[in-house]
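Hey team,

Filing this mostly as a record. A colleague (T.K.) asked me to run one chain through the structure pipeline before their review meeting, and I want the input and output archived in the tracker in case anyone asks later how it was produced. No errors, nothing strange. Just documentation.

Input sequence:
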Amino acid sequence: MKFGIENAFEMLYNIATSTKGANSIWLGERFEVKQTTAWFIRRKVRTAMVSSGQNPLDGDVHVDEFEIDTPKKGEQGRSKSEPKNSYCDLFREQR
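Output structure:
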């Protein structure tokens, strides 16, 4: 299974931020990989995301520069605009 690191990170982002986890059929079509490949990647990402429960965030957690697609001016409801780059920086102060 070979594809670019950019695609790998974009797949990870889509899996992590999708309400239902981004299904493997859609991932396969979107990133031009076999559905089974997308399924294995999705499975590995979800397994890696399982919390051990040993390091919960506590105290003040700061989220900086978070944006997910916004509607164009003058449009109402769900946006049909071109997707924008989305990113999130999360950090916790060490004490």
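Quick notes for T.K.: Strands lie at 61-64, 89-92. The helical segments are 5-17, 24-31, 35-49.
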